[in-house]
């Protein structure tokens, strides 16, 4: 299958749904999106936001002038005027109706990262129907990594999905698309800010989905602590017992923590891990210490504490 070209799509917000305290679902619509190349699972796209001090109208004009050459033109744009790019998951796509849903985390409002808001999160918190924006994605339907999809489990074996709130859209989309037989051998662990965030309806089709709310009656857990604990318990009893030995192999560069096998090996377990880069590193270390080969593990830093998304 020929790889798609990536291009800009001019979109308008047609629906805003507050799903729970930490998530807002935004439906992007537009005739342009009829040509969007949806591929399901954890497919990622770029959301393009106006540079500080510029308007959505100027953004649309700029992106229109880029044409197919959007990336070099974006790179070449002088810094303060360069539109902002952020990465998001396609929670659902209905190309025939020209619609794409994206679930935005409203971060920075509380917890250990209180105050760490960002332009995309702020934009989503204030979005109303009629707002205009640009997304970047593939220009034709297809399947696989060229479409921004990393979920690629081998046939058979247990499936483990681990993520913080930024991975919730991807994990929910994956669970909803699983065949019932595959769902039976799937466990998903999702850490979210609070209990109400755990009430999102997900058709998990028989998969074991465990929500881990950080904020509870006894206070608030550190970001990632519940995930790491849950993964450790899940793997307990496996040989060798997983540990978080700081001396163990792992001086990975957190900025570039994107460790996805080229070819997935078939085996007893396939693990998909995404979220804050330091947490993903810790989970990855545990899973590897339990003997999982690298080719059965996809580990992706979706964001990094204290750092704005670079691209
Ligand atoms: C493949 C992929 C798929 C993704 N899918 C989604 C998705 O569907 N929904 C979603 O909400 N996010 C998703 N993300 C994460 C999202 O891209 C980042 O959270 C992004 O940094 C948000 O941009 P911003 O402008 O709000 O904040 P930025 O300007 O990038 O960052 C500003 C500050 O906020 C902090 N920050 C960023 N994100 C968070 C967070 N979640 N919690 C606490 N502090 C944070 C940063 O550390 C920084 O200090 C995805 C990332 C990747 C790589």
What would you note in describing this structure?
This protein is an alpha/beta fold and 311 residues long. The chain folds into two domains: 6-138, Elongation Factor Tu (Ef-tu), domain 3, CATH 2.40.30.10; 150-303, Rossmann fold. 21% of the residues lie in helices and 30% in strands. The protein has helices at 56-66, 70-76, 119-126, 168-177, 180-183, 225-235, 277-289; strands spanning 6-20, 23-29, 44-49, 84-89, 92-94, 99-105, 132-138, 158-163, 186-194, 208-216, 219-220, 258-259, 269-276, 297-303. The strands form two sheets. A seven-stranded antiparallel β-sheet has the order 4-3-7-1-2-6-5. Strands 11-10-9-8-13-14-12 form a seven-stranded mixed β-sheet, with helices on both faces. Strand 5 (92-94) and strand 6 form a beta hairpin. Helix 6 packs parallel to helix 7 (277-289). The longest helix is centred in the C-terminal third of the chain and has 13 residues, at 277-289. The chain is globular, with a radius of gyration of 19 Å. Bound molecules: flavin-adenine dinucleotide (FAD). The site of flavin-adenine dinucleotide has 26 residues, from strand 4, strand 6, helix 3 and strand 14. Flavin-adenine dinucleotide (FAD) is lined by residues 44, 86-89, 103-105, 107-108, 113, 116, 118-121, 166, 169, 302-309.
